[in-house]
Design brief:
Layout: E1 2-6, E2 9-12, E3 17-24, E4 27-37, E5 45-50, E6 56-58, E7 66-71, E8 76-81, E9 90-100, E10 109-112, E11 116-121
Length: 122
Amino acid sequence: VQLQASGGGLVQAGGSLRLSCAASGRIFRIYSMGWYRRPPGKRRELVAEILSGGTIQYADSVKGRFIISRDNAKNTVYLQMNSLKPEDSDIYFCYADLVPANSGSRSRFDYWGQGTLVTVSS
């Protein structure tokens, strides 16, 4: 199982970017998917996630600006980032809480993408 993130880049403050993260491989079931970032000198923080029941959670700092969505048929999660601020600059990591197809016990594991860099200039 692999997670491939894409969509990062350089944008001016106030601009938008759309991140994508696709899970591939032999997957039995995906529960939650989402995005984290790790600001300098701080702990990793949740940006947004979609839980298996459809519940969506956002960090307070991105509410009203970021929108997370998911395409279950493509095993892909998206993060539409609008009204970007310089403080949003970071490496964004996607994750998926899933059961691999070869998990005989149907155990769940967290898989992580490689990270995609977002840079917002002032």
